[in-house]
Structures are given as structure tokens and as C-alpha cells.
Design brief:
Elements: E1 2-3, E2 14-18, H1 22-45, H2 52-76, E3 80-84, E4 97-103, H3 111-122, E5 131-137, H4 142-165, H5 172-177, H6 187-213, H7 218-221, E6 242-247, E7 263-268, H8 279-294, E8 299-304, E9 307-309, H9 314-323, E10 331-335, H10 354-364, E11 377-380, H11 381-384, H12 408-417, H13 442-452, E12 456-459, E13 467-469, H14 475-493, H15 502-505, H16 513-523, H17 529-544, H18 557-578, H19 583-598, H20 600-612, H21 629-636, H22 650-679, H23 698-710, H24 712-720, H25 729-749
Parallel strand pairs: 4-5, 4-8, 5-7, 10-12
Antiparallel strand pairs: 1-2, 2-3, 6-7, 8-11, 9-13, 10-11
This protein binds uridine-5'-diphosphate-glucose and manganese (II) ion (MN).
Residues 102-104, 109, 136, 138, 279-280, 283, 304-306, 338, 374-375, 440-441, 443, 481, 484-485, 488, 620, 622-623 line the site of uridine-5'-diphosphate-glucose.
Length: 750
């Protein structure tokens, strides 16, 4: 590794290094690029005139594989790592930070998760007088408010305990349930720990009991005026703003040992069925305004309720970038990786997203920095709220935060006014200010806009993971999440901020070439469905009809296909292994890639087309954070869970059946033909497929063979498993029907 910017002295708060091995990578790049170009040359010079449509489809698929491969190289060109020096920060210089947390649905996001996330965030190792907490509840739920209230009470014991014994991680649930905690020993500690644990368990019990009763006991309701809001039933889609101050900062509320507490404000913005609430982007913009009113810290961090803080030092790491004497003025936001707890050993559903956060995001550091990933992100409030970066003005880090004593009653009233449905009318929220509206992936969209305004971002990945979150734990949830992502990303590509816009490519756009490649790779994710569907449908159907679409084994071009196939897989495997992955992880990732490609991505292209025609709207389906015990057992055994009759399953199941069927039929008929011709002592086998040379089908056999091996868990789920996670019979029946129809149609038209 070579240090590229260490010249500066002890004042620097971070340095950057580029990964080694660039020369080898560049050789690979050139060789692979030559391979792709030759393959396309072969296609163009070998048009299959008897089957022009099939030839066109296959060529299109290969062209698109080539384009995405090329775009992906944006991440691989110059991976860059940063190291920050939090120990050099002066305590008095730490800037105030507002912490914004979102939750939306007490059933899918259990209130106890929200409470634990909040507690982990409230106990950061940071001057409490500089921290303010805002929680947005889009569910408008009394159960969530109850959990947040109980957390605010428990925090008064938890915060001093964390500080005193320097515990880690600071989510009490995780801390108390992990047996391996490296906790300090000693009589005092044990006693105190047991006491706090008992308090914590009581809190958890209360939250769970309220959840079961769907109501909060009267004695607790009487403890805080906020519960009065729910004296009459609240419809989450139709209610007034609710603002409740649960902890008053600035030294008003104190913890059990008499130290000041940070402020904590519960916000449920107004909802009306007649106005669009813009999902998470709308929620964050509401919190943005409420926090500006009450504390107005120059930095805001936003965290999803399902991501607890796992590193009490994380804020200090991020602050290094905003205070660095040399580079800070360019930096709009700092992004921590998304990491997940509870991922199975081989990451069954690929939801550990190692590739994104342990490989690709380091690549973005080389060109203006990573995408905004929606959680674990610290923004400079000014850049988020519309200020453009001006390289000619070396702006200073400005702290306009509100300090001093506050009239909390009055603030609640004012905060209600900025969280009404009509507040944003005629104002630039969602287009010029705050999070952008118009994509279900509001985060990447907003980050792209900030980059287009000239800001840089930073991928900050301290050794101890900053956050640990909850990822989907079954196939259907995973596919739905990816449908939302790929749809939202495609919406971004089709927006005014398209990374491949003429301004970005040729004009005065602010994006660098590498950045355009990375953004395009992500925002065009959905289009993977095109080559994947073609490769999963055309070669097998052509094969059973005796049509060869690839060079035969003896043809030198055959080797190009084999080379590209093997080396692309080998490269991605090697890459994952270098990031401490395993073969099985890579295999699972490959399988999920194919499942998503033929399901999530296909659906998102259809949703986007329907949206363009004005027929439907894209939405935000919240991922469920609950799992039942039996399903959890299967998950931990790494059995793929299907269980629900989801339309998302039908394309991949159909394709897996199709490939298996075509493979078996082709092989059987080739074998019988060979045997028969031997018996008759004929020179050339003449199969019922009508191909005189079986060697011309070898690549198609390989493709279908590969798809069938990847699909093994699907066949098992359809035909062999008896547990509840198996493929619902209705999906199997539909798929068989569809598969038979495809085979029939192909036999007629090919
Ligand atoms: O109307 C809504 C919908 C969602 N949320 C919140 O948004 C967050 C993310 O929702 P989740 O269902 O957990 O989605 P994920 O797919 O896990 O989220 C990923 O993808 C989102 C974009 O689609 C990003 O915003 C997230 O940060 C990123 O982690 C959660 O805290 C929700 O409470 C709201 O506040 N209001
Ligand atoms: Mn989530």
C-alpha cells in the first residue's frame, strides 16, 4: 500500500491510502475487456440468419453483460481506504450532532427494537450537551411511544452505567444477551450490572406486554401527558401531528447520578389520506425541521430503528472528517457501512451485503465518495439543506446550534406547525432541500444530488462496526426489498439527475467518470433482468429444438466463452475471499443474484413501465423485522424459506424447471441417438433434436447445467421438503404450467 496524502503533520485528522495490486488488476481489466470485445465481434460477424431473433436476443444479453461488467470496474479501479485519528480531537471542539431515528410500523418494527436502538444511540461516548435525539414514528403508535417513553426512563440508569464501565455494545438487549462480553470484573460491577439488568428486563417485559394487549396500562399512561394523544384511537394514515418532549436537554433533565441528559423528542408528523407522505424521505425532512427548531446542530446523523450503535466511538470517527484542517470543507456527508447481525454463517440470502460495504464502497472513495446508504450517515446540515459546494470559498465549519434554556411547551407548539401535511407546499423540500422525493431509494437519490452539487462524501469504516442492523431473513422479504431498491434506483436513473446525463458525461456536471460508472451500475441494477432472462430462456429452448446458438467445441471462439465465464466467476470469488468471505458465501450470493435477477429486477422493470404509463405508483414496503421460532430454526440451518405463495417466486421457479427439463431431454436424446447409431454402426449420430453434431450444443448444456445446479434448493423446496418453509403447491403448479407453455410455444415457433 502506498500512502498518498500523509505529507501533513500531526494536525490531520485522517489519511487515505490506495489498495495495492493495481498493476495486476489493470492487466486483468485489459484482458477481460479484450475478451468481451472479441465476443461481441464474433456475434456481429456470425449472424445466425436462420434464427435472427434468437441471435439478436443472445447478442443483446451478452452486450448488456459486457456493459455492466464495464460499469462495475468503477468500483475496482482504485479502492481507497481512510484511517481517522479520533484521539487527536479536542473535546471542546466536538460539534453538536442531532440524531434522527425513523420507525414506521409497530408490527413490522417491534417497539422493543426501537427502544434498544435509541438506548444504544443515546449512550454514545460524546458530550451529552451536544447531542439531541428525535424519533419519527410514521406508525403514530401508542405502543411505540410507550417504548420510547420507557427507554427515556431507563436511559437515566443506562447512560451513567455505560460511561462508568465503558460497556460495549451499548444496546442493552445485545449487551445483556451476549455471553462473551468482555465486561470488567469486580464486586461493584457485578452488583450494579445485576441491578441494571433487572431494570432492563422489567422494561422489556412492559413493552412486550403492552404489545400483546395492544394497549398501555393506566398507571403508565398517567406518568406522561403524551399518552393523552391516544385517548381517542389514532388512525396511522389520518391524524394530527404529535410532538412530545420526553427528555429536556441543556441540563434540565438529569440522570440517576445527577448528570445532564440529552434531549429526546417524539415526533409523529401529520398524516392525511389526501396528501402524499413521501415515506421515509418525508419523515426525515419533518425531523430535519423539528430538530432545526429545537437544537439546530450543524451535523445530523440519521439511523433506521433496526440498526443499533455497536461502537460508542463512531461519532468521533466521523467528526474527524468534518474537522480535518485540509479536506473538511469539501465533505458533505460521512457514510458508515451497513452491517448486519444474525446473518447465517454462509450468508444464505446474501443480505450481509459484504460485496457492497466491504468491497465496492471502498472503490467509491476514489471518486468523490460513496453513495448515501440511508442509515448510519452524518450530514452537514447545510449541504443537506441545499447549499452548493464552492471550491473557491473555503467555508469554515459553522455551528449555528441553539443553546441555552428553552421554552419546551412553546417548542412543542412550533414543532407541530412544521410537521403538518401542508407545511411543505410551495417550499423546496424534497427537490432543493432535505431528502429528495420521487424514489423509493431516497438515500442514493439524495446522495447523488449532493454529489451533483459538488460535495464529496466519505466512507468511514472503523474496525469495530459502527452499526449492526436487521436484514431480511427469508426469500420473499429479500426479493421484495430488492424490488424496492431496484425500482427506486431505476427511478433515479430516469430522473433529472441521471448519472449518465449529457451534462455529467460531456458538460459541467460535477460527477467524475468513475463516479458516473458506479452510480450507473447501481441505478441500472434492474436491467440485469434482461440478460438473465434471455440466458435462462433462450439457450435451453433452442437446445431442445436442436438449435445451436454458440460456437462448437472445436471452434476457437468456444474458448472465449469459456474464458469469460470462468474468469468472471473466479474474479468475483477471489474478491469476496479477500474480503474474508467463503466459497459457500459466494455461491449463495450467486444464487441470490440469479433469483433477484429473474424476480425482483423483472418486477421492478414492470412496475417502472406501469408507472410511466400512469397505471401504478411505486411504494415503500417496509421490511418485517420479526420471525417466528420455527422459521428461525430453518434459517439457522440455512434452509431457504419460501412458505408464502408469492408471485415473486414464479419466474425463478419456472426458469429452474425449464432448464432442468431441457437439459434432461437434450442429454437423454443425445445419449440414445449415440447408442442407437453405434448399434447401427452409423458414422454420424442423428438425434431426434435434428442436430447432427452434439458438440454444437455443449455451451447450452453447460448453461442449463449451471442454472440447474444453482437451482437445487428450489427443486428441493418444490418436490422434496415437507416442512412449512417449502414451496407452496400453488407456485409449483403455476410454474409447471408456465414451463410447459414455454416449451410448447418454442416447439411451434422455433
Ligand atoms: O413510510 C416510511 C417507510 C419507512 N420508514 C423507515 O425507513 C427505514 C428503512 O425501512 P426498512 O423497511 O428497514 O427498509 P430497508 O430495506 O432495510 O432499508 C434500506 O433501504 C432504504 C431505501 O429503500 C433506506 O432508506 C434504508 O436506510 C436502507 O437501510 C425504517 O427505519 C423505517 O421505519 C419510514 O420512516 N417511513
Ligand atoms: Mn432496514
Amino acid at each position: 500500500m502506498t500512502v498518498i496524502s500523509s505529507s501533513l503533520d500531526d494536525e490531520r485528522l485522517f489519511i487515505s491510502r490506495q489498495a495495492g495490486g493495481r498493476f495486476l488488476y489493470k492487466i486483468y481489466f485489459l484482458v477481460f475487456l479484450t475478451g468481451i470485445v472479441s465476443l461481441l465481434y464474433y456475434r456481429v460477424t456470425n449472424i445466425a440468419y436462420d434464427h435472427p431473433v434468437l441471435w439478436f436476443l443472445i447478442t443483446l444479453a451478452e452486450f448488456w453483460f459486457g456493459v455492466t461488467w464495464f460499469l462495475q470496474q468503477g468500483f475496482r479501479w482504485a479502492p481507497t481506504y481512510h484511517v481517522e485519528y479520533p484521539e487527536r480531537l479536542a473535546e471542546s471542539n466536538l460539534p453538536p450532532i442531532d440524531v434522527l431515528v425513523c420507525t414506521a410500523d409497530p408490527d413490522r418494527e417491534p417497539p422493543s427494537i426501537v427502544a434498544n436502538t435509541l438506548l444504544s444511540l443515546m449512550s454514545y461516548d460524546y458530550d451529552v450537551n451536544k447531542l439531541s435525539y428525535y424519533i419519527s414514528d410514521d406508525g403514530g403508535s401508542q405502543l411505540t411511544f410507550h417504548a420510547v417513553y420507557l427507554a427515556s426512563v431507563f436511559a437515566k440508569s443506562w447512560l451513567p452505567f455505560c460511561k462508568k464501565y465503558n460497556v460495549e455494545p451499548r444496546s442493552p438487549k445485545v449487551y445483556f444477551s451476549s455471553s462473551s462480553t468482555s465486561s470488567p470484573s469486580g464486586q461493584n460491577f457485578r452488583q450494579e450490572c445485576d441491578k441494571i439488568k433487572a431494570k432492563f428486563e422489567k422494561m422489556q417485559e412492559r413493552i412486550e406486554k403492552a404489545g400483546k394487549m395492544r394497549n398501555v396500562p393506566v398507571e403508565i399512561r398517567n406518568e406522561h401527558k403524551g399518552f393523552k394523544e391516544w385517548d381517542t384511537k389514532i388512525d396511522p394514515r389520518d391524524h394530527d401531528s404529535i410532538i412530545e418532549v420526553l427528555l429536556r436537554g441543556n441540563g434540565v433533565d438529569k440522570d440517576d447520578e445527577g448528570n445532564p441528559m440529552p434531549s429526546l423528542i417524539y415526533v409523529s408528523r401529520e398524516k392525511r389520506p389526501t396528501s402524499h407522505h413521501r415515506f421515509k424521505a418525508g419523515a426525515l425532512n419533518a425531523l430535519n425541521r423539528v430538530s432545526a427548531l429545537i437544537s439546530n446542530a450543524p451535523l445530523v446523523i440519521n439511523v433506521d430503528c433496526d440498526m443499533y450503535s455497536n461502537n460508542s466511538q463512531a461519532l468521533r470517527h466521523a467528526v474527524c472528517y468534518f474537522l480535518d484542517p485540509k479536506e473538511s470543507h469539501r465533505i458533505g456527508y460521512v457514510q458508515f457501512p451497513q452491517s448486519f447481525g444474525g446473518i447465517t454463517q454462509s450468508d444464505l440470502y446474501g443480505n450481509g451485503v459484504k460485496r457492497i460495504y466491504e468491497i465496492e464502497f471502498f472503490g467509491t472513495n476514489a471518486h468523490n465518495g460513496p453513495m448515501y446508504a440511508g442509515t448510519g450517515t452524518i450530514h452537514r446540515r447545510e449541504s443537506l439543506n441545499g447549499r452548493k459546494y464552492d471550491p473557491n470559498v473555503k467555508i469554515k465549519f459553522e455551528d449555528k446550534s441553539v443553546r441555552g434554556s428553552k421554552n419546551w411547551v412553546e417548542l412543542e407548539v412550533q414543532a407541530k406547525l412544521v410537521t403538518t401535511c401542508t407545511y411543505e407546499e410551495g417550499k423546496p423540500w424534497g427537490s432543493e432541500m432535505g431528502l429528495m422525493y420521487g424514489s423509493a431509494v431516497e438515500d442514493v437519490y439524495t446522495g447523488l444530488v449532493l454529489h451533483s452539487r459538488g460535495w464529496n462524501s466519505i466512507f468511514c469504516s472503523p474496525e469495530r462496526k459502527a452499526f449492526l442492523g436487521l436484514a431480511p431473513v427469508n426469500t420473499n422479504d429479500t426479493l421484495i426489498q430488492h424490488k424496492r431498491w431496484s425500482t427506486g434506483l431505476l427511478e433515479i436513473f430516469l430522473s433529472d439527475y441521471c448519472p449518465m446525463s449529457l451534462a455529467n458525461l460531456f458538460g459541467d456536471g460535477k460527477l467524475k467518470l468513475g463516479q458516473i460508472m458506479c452510480y450507473s451500475f447501481y441505478t441500472l441494477w434492474a436491467l440485469w433482468c434482461l440478460p438473465m432472462l434471455i440466458y435462462a430462456v433462450v439457450p435451453p429452448l433452442a437446445m431442445v429444438n436442436g438449435i445451436s446458438l454458440f460456437p462448437k467445441v472445436s471452434n476457437p471462439w468456444f474458448r472465449i466463452f469459456i474464458f469469460l465465464g470462468i474468469s468472471s466467476h473466479a474474479f468475483s470469488l477471489a474478491e469476496l475471499m479477500l474480503a474474508k468471505g467463503t466459497f459457500q458465501m459466494w455461491w449463495n450470493e450467486t444464487r441470490m443474484w440469479m433469483l433477484k435477477g429473474t424476480s425482483s429486477y423483472l418486477f421492478s422493470v414492470m412496475v417502472t413501465i406501469l408507472k410511466a404509463l400512469g397505471i401504478s405508483e411505486s411504494g415503500f414496503e417496509i421490511t418485517s423485522k420479526v420471525i417466528d421460532e420455527e422459521a428461525l430454526k430453518r434459517y439457522n440451518k440455512e434452509m431457504m424459506e419460501f412458505a408464502v405463495a408469492s408471485p415473486m417466486f414464479i419466474p425463478p421457479t419456472t426458469l429452474s424447471l425449464l432448464n432442468l427439463y431441457c437439459l434432461v431431454r437434450t442429454v437423454v436424446s443425445l445419449v440414445t441417438a449415440t447408442v442407437m447409431s453405434n448399434n447401427l454402426e452409423e458414422a454420424e449420430p442423428n438425434t431426434s433434436l435434428g442436430v447432427s453434431n452434439p458438440l454444437a450444443l455443449v455451451l447450452q448444456i453447460i448453461i442449463s447445467g449451471y442454472i440447474s445446479i444453482v437451482s437445487l434448493p428450489i427443486y428441493k423446496a418444490m418436490f422434496l421438503r415437507m416442512d412449512k418453509g417449502r414451496m407452496p403447491t400453488s407456485v409449483t403448479v403455476y410454474s409447471i404450467g408456465l414451463c410447459a407453455t414455454l416449451v410448447y410455444l418454442a416447439s411451434v415457433f422455433m
